[in-house]
Amino acid sequence: MAQQTDPRLLSILKDLVHIDLDAITVYDAVLKRITVPQLEQALMEFRSDHLLHVQQLNDRIERLGGEREPPRPSVESCERHGFTPVREGMSIEELLTVMVEGEQITNQTYEWVLKEDWDPETRALLDRNFADEQRHLLWVLMASRTRIWARQGPAPSAP
To answer: pTM of this prediction?
Structure first.
């Protein structure tokens, strides 16, 4: 039987699902425009992390007595949450700037969410997800600052 949780906390978790869905939408748009293998590989891995977050958060919401959030990412939701839209013709540098901004939004959101008083299992899940978000942001910042798409030789692997 699912345990009952404060409806406000369930609402926060549902909002977090939507932030991860928005991140997936941005990743999808950027991945359609990236042709640099080392960037593509890392971004695909990070997109998979966001998919996993959505699944795990929905599982947790359900165990806490709430209803799962349907995975319906949308451009409108992205814009509402402050994600920069991806436009046709953006350079790799501009696309990575969009990724940095998006990962900053997810990091800030997880940081804010973690200020709440969560049960130990939910706290552990949120801590793991936040660690993923921090890793994503650090890697995308490094890729942007070092312009790895313009260098010869092997690129650093995603952490």
So the answer is: 0.85
